Automatic annotation (TrEMBL):
Keywords in alphabetical order: Membrane, Transmembrane, Transmembrane helix
Native species: Herbidospora galbida
Protein name: Uncharacterized protein
Transmembrane portions of the chain: 12-36, 42-67, 74-92, 112-133
Amino acid sequence: MAPDRPSIRQAAELALPGFAIGAVGGAMAGGLTLIAGQPVGWAAVSALTLALPLGLLGGLFSTLCGLGGPFRPGLFAPAGLFWLLAFPLSRLTQEVSTGLILDGQVVLAGGVAGFLAYQALVSLGFAIGFVWLHERLMPHWLIRLAGRNPVARTLLQRYIEHAEALDHQRRNRKARGKGQTKGVR
């Protein structure tokens, strides 16, 4: 059983996969900015100002997974709702920071409400990619932590139980399929 309150170190260790996924996703924005024809400095600032909030919020997501809250292996809806708020907030942070750093002003296409509404729509795609990567990276990270971090050990057990349940469902479907096709020829 995980302790009631993880230590700062335990929480920080859990945060690493989500932080890395968010930061890399944000940094990719710099590459897209370059492809769009913006100068290197603009791309670097754009990458940094998105990588930082996405990384921090991704780390928060990973940590919350370990605390046994609504984020569980194989469950997308809570993650989708998290990123429905977190992604637009990250993009708003990026746009405001980048505008102030490079131009000394902030211009949001469609105003704040329009900008946030559009980013909320885009957030679903980010959420799907984030969760897909998180579900693949987190268990490997937890295996490394499980010996010294009881919170990681508990979360790893949840991932194992989820994998076993999926395997059990797959075997049942396969067995039912074989039973149905035996008499048919």
